[in-house]
Amino acid sequence: MIDFVDLKVQIDKMSEDKSLRDKDLAWRIERAMREMEDASKEWEELARKAKGSKTSWLIAQIRQPLSWGYAPPKRPDRLSVVAVDGSQIFPDRHELAVCYLVNIGVVAIHYGTGERPFMKSIPSLFWKDEDLFVRWGGRKVHVDGEVLGMKRAVMEMERLVEQCIRLREEGREKVVGLIDGTLILWRLEGCPQDFKSSILEGFISHLDRMRRERIPLAGYISSPGSTDVVNLLRVKICPMEYPDCDRCPAGGWEVEEGLPCSAVSGFPDRVLWKRFLSVGESTSIFGSSSKILEEYGEHRVDFFYVRVGEEVARVEVPRWVSEDPELFLLLKSCVWDQVEKGGGYPVVLAEAHEQAVVRGSDRDLFFRMLEGSFVRKGIPAAMSAKGLRKRRMAV
Amino acid sequence: MAFSGKRIGEVIESSTTQFTAECIEREGVPPFGSLVVAVSDYEVYGLVFEVRTVSVDPGRRPMAYGKTEEELMMEQPQIFELLRTEFQAVICGYRDREGVRQALPPTPPRIHSFVYPCDLEGVREFTSSFDFLRMLFSSYLRIPIDELIIASLRNAYLARDGDPSYLIKAGKELSKLLGDDYERLNSIFRRIGR
Description:
The structure holds 2 protein chains of 2 kinds.
Chain A: H1 4-41, H2 43-51, E1 61-62, E2 68-70, E3 79-89, E4 100-111, E5 118-126, H3 129-132, E6 133-136, E7 139-142, H4 145-169, E8 175-180, H5 193-213, E9 217-221, H6 228-237, H7 269-276, E10 282-283, E11 286-287, E12 301-307, E13 312-318, H8 319-322, H9 325-341, H10 347-356, H11 360-376, H12 385-391
Parallel strand pairs in A: 3-8, 8-9
Antiparallel strand pairs in A: 1-11, 2-10, 3-4, 4-5, 6-7, 9-13, 11-12, 12-13
Helix pairs in contact in A: 1-2, 1-6, 4-5
Chain B: E1 9-14, E2 18-23, E3 35-39, E4 43-55, H1 69-75, H2 78-81, E5 83-96, E6 99-101, E7 114-117, H3 120-126, H4 131-138, H5 145-159, H6 164-178, H7 182-193
Antiparallel strand pairs in B: 1-2, 1-7, 2-5, 3-4, 3-7, 4-5, 5-6
Helix pairs in contact in B: 5-7, 6-7
């Protein structure tokens, strides 16, 4: 229950605060736009400065002349697009049994052939010890939501790769794979080495297979919150020759507000690009400087932004895609075609999501089936008192 | 057997007086007024009186794309997977060991039983008697009776290579059912003949 009277006072205060901040924000965006225009002319200079800097935030790596306004390439007449998305029923101590369900939606749509699409959701139930526990810094710990999220990323990639390769084996020449969200498993950065390796090994081996088959793939991020490019502009306006946040003469992150570089901060890249890109247009390619990518080898992740209607999306690709003009153009044409067909979001990803989604009623039915099966087999199906209490409240 | 060829639907709703079946193929939709057979405990005959195509997911409505069906097949093929076509048939007879009866079957078709289109021989056999017309008139279902009679009698007439003596017999039966409503009878036969 929420005390809405109390909440209303807080909401009003927040709105007042935000409107004051917005005026300042508009000014900062203007400044960033001017800096961006400048940066595109002196991109080599900026690339050099960025390379030598040590910042406390991620900066986009300039991999080619910093530019924007690239029109979408034309999609080949015949193309198959594969997408996956996943959802899960969480391990919950208060529910019936210690198990979890991962549901992965796989969709493959063939364009220009009139064939029926492949649309399927694949549920997998995990209950064995090796599924419920992971090695975590030498200890055996219970899988939680965050760990499952990372395991799921590997499973999704595996399904994507399987489906893409199946299509290639059927003799389809042009195949593209799309995944919802980032390709950068940045959450692994803080994890112990044994767990990190267990996740990365699978993920990288799936990417290896795609590379061998030369099937381009991308992670599609709708309305991204990343600030890599804006941070590049912060580097640009930093008065130091090579910015070093630890030795910031202005006081560093502790006094964020008054820093010279805060003149262009406080908004994500998409806000800036929306002012530069017309619908369909994209930016040049940047490299991500996420630390985890040091372990990606040849699959280091590059990205670009594309205006997809009202919003700007971020598209992430492995380096072997961004450096291969044929694969890159194929991927780019596919992404734009998908977005156009889907009214601002790739249609194949939207369908994969529809396949994957687990609704409240699905969840209830899953637990009822579990309970029924346990009862038939004579296994005590006990719920914790708290779990029961959450389902039925007395007055 | 009054049917041959491919199954066209699967029963998804069933009652003593009518059944609803989901089409198996996009091309295999039975026409309005056609005779179909649901095969379960009995061969249950039905006349198709309603065909509709709806979204598989009630939360998703079809929208206009401004493209031809051919273009959609090439460029938006997924939408056809998200639509389903179902048809409703009013039950007008069944076959047991002794033959065809124009009466309601003892049990309705089972859910998930398959539905077949009646072949020409089957249509001739079933429509050789006219008691099914009385069943339609006494049905409490909301069905477009006159339209259904026109379509079903026209099919029966065509299955007999347009034999006029069949229509004369049918006319005699219908006039008994319609009493002195000459206008209605006239309208029905005018439209069968065309």
